[in-house]
Amino acid sequence: MSDIDDLMSRLPMSEIAGRLGVDEATAHSAVAQALPALVGGLEHHAGDEQGARNITGALAQHDNDLAQGQISLGDVDTADGEKIVSHIFGNKTGNVASAVSGQVPAAAVDQGLIQKLLPILAPIVMSYLASKLLKGGEGRSGGGAGDLGSILGGALGGGASGGLGSILGGVLGGGGKEGGLGDLLGGILGGRK
After folding, report:
1. How many CB atoms within 10 Å of residue 186?
2. Alpha-carbon distance 153 to 175, whole Å?
3. What is the DSSP letter of 50?
4. In what helix (H) or strand (E) does residue 97 lie, and over which residues does it extend?
5. Residue from 168, 71, 165 nearest 123 by CA
6. CB 134 within 8 A of CB 63
7. DSSP 104
8. Which candidate, 20, 30, 33, 192, has a CA 20 to 30 Å from the CA of 81?
9. In 10 A of CB 192, how many CB atoms?
10. Sign of the CA dihedral 57, 112, 5, 160?
11. Do the beta carbons of residue 162 and residue 171 sit within 8 Å?
């Protein structure tokens, strides 16, 4: 089971569905598209030293128990989630939500649902990645761009060779080919420095 599957299995889909005003199947599809986008956005920013330092600092601030065990939406600070999403995607959040919502045509969800969901999921993702990064001293060695990028790629079950772009493409049906989520996020967020 990949880490994203593990995280999804612990999310309260009925609560998420209720908060979004949709059925559980739609909520599940939206989460399956939004989670990889958040991690992909973080991985994109981890491509340079300053971005990696910023993300490592943010992860340290989110080293809490939010993503441990069964997750409760009552514990999620969506105001913090809005800030996280803003740091990850900036003024491109709408573009990312639009692009991500259409990545899996058979399970496409409304762009507005993705935008409502991102701030709910962002603190959970940060807590989950913090526990992965900081567990057992991993990632404390230098927090450089390569280290953090590898950890972010590994968080979704990828190795150093495949890279997160391939994983995300596979998760969302792109199969790592040109036009997958990695390419999509790179096109929207701009090239790495």
Report:
1. 16
2. 15
3. H
4. helix 93-101
5. 71
6. yes
7. S
8. 192
9. 13
10. negative
11. no
Single out the residue of 164, 126, 138, 154 nearest to residue 43, CA to CA: 164
CB 128 within 8 A of CB 142: no
Is the C-alpha dihedral spanning 45, 78, 184, 7 positive or negative?
positive
In 10 A of CB 1, how many CB atoms?
Answer: 8
Check if the beta carbon of residue 132 is closer than 8 Å to that of residue 151: yes
Give me the phi and psi of 75, to 5 degrees please.
-90, -5
Backbone angles phi, psi at 99, to 5 degrees: -65, -45
CA 12 to CA 177: how far, in whole Å? 32
Domain borders along the chain are 3-188
Please tell me the predicted confidence (pLDDT) of residue 108: 62
CA distance 44 to 184: 11
How far apart (Å, rounded) are the C-alpha atoms in residues 174 and 180?
Answer: 4
Q: Is residue 115 a contact partner of residue 157, using CB atoms and an 8 Å limit?
A: no
Residues making up the chain, counted from first to last: 193
Question: Distance between CA 47 and CA 44 in Å, rounded?
Answer: 6
What are the pLDDT digits (tens) for 93-119?
888 888 887 665 556 688 889 999 999
- What pLDDT is recorded for position 93? 86
Q: Do residues 77 and 64 make contact, with C-beta atoms less than 8 angstroms apart?
A: no
Question: Would you say residue 139 has pLDDT above 80?
Answer: no
Please calculate the CA angle 143-95-40 and round it to the nearest 5 degrees.
25
